[in-house]
Amino acid sequence: MNKKFLSAILFGALMVSSTGTFVSCKDYDDDIENLQGQINSNKDAIAALQKLVGEGKWVTNISPVENGFAVTMSDGTTTSITGIKGADGKDGTEWTIGEDGFWYKDGEKTTSQAIAKDGEDGKPGATAPSPKIDANGMWVVYEWDAVKGEFVEKTTEISAQGTSAYVVKKDGVYVLHIADETGKFQEVTLPATSDAFVVEAPAAVVKVKFQTAKWQPAVKNTTEKAKKAYKTLTEKFTDLAGIAANAIVKQGGELPILVNPANVELTDKFDFSLQLAKGKVLDIALSNPVKGIADDWKVNNGSMSRAAKTEDCLWTLDVEPAYNEKDKKYATTENEEASLVVENEKGTVVKTAFAYQVSADDVNENVDVNAGTVTYAPTIDLTAVDAKTEKAGIIYANEYKGKAIVKLRDQLNIEQYGLSLDGNVLTIANMPANVSGITVKLNVIALGLNGSAVDKDIDVTVNQDIQVAGGLEDKNVTLSTEKVSGAYTQNVLWDVADFQFTTATQKDAFFKAGKTMSVYLLDENGDKPETATYTYTTDDNNLAQYKSDGKATATSYSDFAKFGFSLNAANYVPGTYAIVFEATDGAATIVKSEATMIVSNPKAEDIFKLVPDFTTANVLQVIGDYTTVNNKVVYDLEDGILAPDFAGSDVTYIDLDHKAWEEAMGADTEMGAIDWIDDQGRLSVYQNAWNGDDTKANEYMLNKERNIRATYTLYGNAENTIDYDFKVIVKSSVYTADGSNVTVKAITGAFGKEVNMTSNISAVYALGINKGKALTLFGNAGGSTQKDVTDYDAPKKDAADKYVVNADATPIEIAKADLIKFGMTVDAYTALGADDKFFLTVENNDVTVGGKNSTLKGWETIMTEVNKYYTYNNGTWGDKSDLSADEKAARDASAEVALFKAYKDKLAYDTKKETVTTQAKPASDEIKSVTFAWDDAKLAEKFVTSTTIGTDGKFTAKAEADIKASDLVNGKAELKVNMKVTDKWGMVMTKTYTVTIKK
């Protein structure tokens, strides 16, 4: 005996898959997937071993190596799984059970005995349970205590800190102990060789009961009917005569086991026994291995006691405990758990965990029989449990070894359906096609374990599915974007016509049937959960039946056209759902059908949009806030996205370019190295040149497109999320690459004078909500100045001071159409000759036409009226500030005001001084600085007093006398100026223009 136990800080992960050429009954692939999720670093190694196992290889050796395990396969290949060191950074600890039955640590014998030495009848003692780790992280072994006659725990001084898996090889198998996400170790048992096999108990504790009763037919059968029934049974089953009165009668007792691999066939050539931890072999015979669940195990009072199939590698053994005449009782496991020991023809011995309890169940109740419901088939075993109804046709309680006499009792019933019986097997020759079920009338005489008898009439229900060619159609459902009665709901409907009913009887039965639609959300492997995710029923009124319009409720089978349920988007997540639909009439199934429903979210591009005013070529144009975070421009991305109200407000953003950089493990100098999303979920980028010449290339982030992902929850369901991917670019609201938003008008200065260039320079915003509006590049200090303005009360006059004149000293002719407005009478106006002309005078002018006298208003008269309403306001001509409503009305009706507006621009005037007060005005906040520099300082030095231009944009030209005539071209000098505008985003815009200096 050389049994090994290996521990390692790392998984022996592949052990869950290290089987031979057999087909495993357990889903070891799932175990491996779970381990891969925990230890990603071993992914490739595990995959390689999986491939070998799939080719029929098995594990021949596992040994500790530095930082992990070395696994040797049956083809000779060795794979090392490394990457996670133990708490002390050393190899895993190796434990073995030596030939002497003691635990060995790293080859050194301990005082802990691992094999019981007091096995009975020369049989070997039991093997100690596998070691474990206590709450303090120390190894605990089990050693044999000869005094107590059992294994006891012994805490060693060996630390197990950091251990997540270990393996024990004993009793012909590997037992792999793997820590789950809670830290609890789960066990996986595997064969050690290609011809080895594994037996396991189906559960941690398996209770196997057999029934016993005192045989008392005389006491239990007191009525004439019961006595007659008992007599009939004894005549049928002659072996009953051999049972003595008051004898202890036993029946039943079946022990279930799981056997791996699937191709192992248990036969009577195998030896089976039950052994206690102390090594005692119990006097309980185990025999007759049967694959699957035997009838007695399956049926308990007519109901299925557990779910199992023959392909599940589940076997049952008959349990025959020995009867002790002295104690008058049968052998049991004595209130302990026993291990099942199995030895095959080759002598290979394997054992289960200590899981089996065998005990007696004393029966005192009399036999009884009741009717059940079964599904139609041409022949039906009335004692077998129906897979659909989970009931047998005849339900026995406390019966003895199935000893019963079953008869058909109604001749009309027999002839109507063509019924016949062969033992417990019912034949139905004439099952009607258009009924959901029939009743079969039986008489049953049954014997009980205690000798009681019963004679009873029962009516067994035989259900029938309506045979239809069609069924539910598969559905593709996109969650609704339209709110109905305050919720995002939509009807998911199926057509009755899809079932292809052939008769009105069928359709009527379907209409009247109770309907259940169970909806199961499949997992990532496409597997259906045990419990329905959602259930809709006609009984609960959430599965509705409609007329053809899908809105009005159907009233009978004749107008029944559609059925279905209302799907609330808040309750569903995208995925594949299995639909199981069943229509029943009582216990009878009318129709059963299954379909698939694929639920999807609406497309992100259909429900999310970038704000159009902020978007160019499908790229969100961001200006951002440059004042919140030093050296950064930040922006709340939600301000740039139009989202529906069913998208949650709790949005997360991911910089996809940064994510791709992380996955590619890119260089720190790449653009993706910087995450554009800050810890508050805002877009956050560096201002260009924020760190001067030390600014890194990947910190110049303006005017560069970036890929961003916004993740929203939908419909208030935290489990339903959707990604919206878009591009964003951060720009300055005042910057253009070509400076096109800055306008420089012709700048001309005079020799010997100061020149202020800023008065001829203007700018507008390039982007954002102020796009196109005036941008103030230069501030001013404010104050008062004298401004020359037009003096409308001082028009230019001719030499005689009679007429007002224009700039050419020409009198202003009054248009013939205006003469009446100026004061000419109608009589005079109608007497005008073709060559008559009149001119605007300073004062009123008396004129005679055709002997008719008129007075034409002069400019002074006009201005007297105009001055009532107009004046200069801070240097600008306009309304007086305190005009009343009546005065404004009089102004608008004034003939003089109308004449002033019509003729004021025709006159020439003197000027006068007006005081103009300006308010101090800073440059727009977006402007950080504006600087000027001569393009050619040496050239400028010839014409200006200083080669440095102040930030106010002013310079002084040299006097003409100080300039060489030869340096002038056509008596003037032209100098180029470079103006640099630096904004708060760190962008620099250069504008070059020409200044002309002349006399």
Keywords:
about 1000 residues, mainly beta, seven-stranded antiparallel β-sheet, five-stranded mixed β-sheet, 15 helices, about 10% helix, disordered N terminus
Quick overview of this protein structure:
The chain is mainly beta.
What does this structure look like?
Helices cover 11% and strands 39% of the residues. The chain has 15 helices and 68 strands. The protein has a seven-stranded antiparallel β-sheet with strand order 7-6-5-1-11-12-13, with no helix packed on it. Strands 37-44-43-39-40 form a five-stranded mixed β-sheet. A five-stranded mixed β-sheet has the order 46-47-53-52-50. β9 and β10 form a beta hairpin. The N and C termini lie far apart (119 Å).
In terms of topology, how is this protein built?
Blueprint: E1 3-8, H1 28-38, H2 43-54, E2 59-65, E3 68-73, E4 78-82, E5 94-97, E6 102-105, E7 108-113, E8 132-133, E9 138-145, E10 150-159, E11 165-170, E12 173-179, E13 185-191, E14 198-200, E15 206-214, H3 217-220, H4 224-236, E16 248-251, E17 254-260, E18 271-275, E19 284-291, H5 295-298, E20 299-300, E21 303-304, E22 314-321, E23 323-324, E24 329-330, E25 339-343, E26 349-351, E27 356-362, E28 368-371, E29 373-375, E30 379-381, E31 394-397, E32 399-408, H6 411-417, E33 419-422, E34 425-428, E35 437-448, E36 453-463, E37 475-478, E38 489-495, H7 504-512, E39 514-521, E40 534-537, E41 544-546, E42 562-568, E43 575-585, E44 588-600, H8 604-607, E45 609-610, E46 615-616, E47 619-622, E48 632-635, E49 641-642, E50 652-655, H9 656-664, E51 683-686, E52 705-714, E53 717-730, E54 742-744, E55 747-750, E56 754-756, E57 761-764, E58 774-775, E59 783-795, H10 819-822, H11 826-830, E60 845-849, E61 852-856, H12 859-866, E62 870-873, E63 876-879, H13 885-893, H14 895-903, E64 909-918, E65 927-934, H15 937-940, ...
Parallel strand pairs: 15-27, 29-36, 37-44, 47-53, 55-68
Antiparallel strand pairs: 1-5, 1-11, 2-3, 3-4, 5-6, 6-7, 8-9, 9-10, 11-12, 12-13, 14-17, 15-16, 17-22, 18-25, 19-22, 20-21, 23-24, 25-26, 28-31, 30-34, 32-35, 33-34, 35-36, 38-42, 39-40, 39-43, 41-42, 43-44, 45-49, 46-47, 48-51, 50-52, 52-53, 54-57, 56-66, 57-58, 59-64, 60-61, 62-63, 65-67, ...
Helix pairs in contact: 12-14
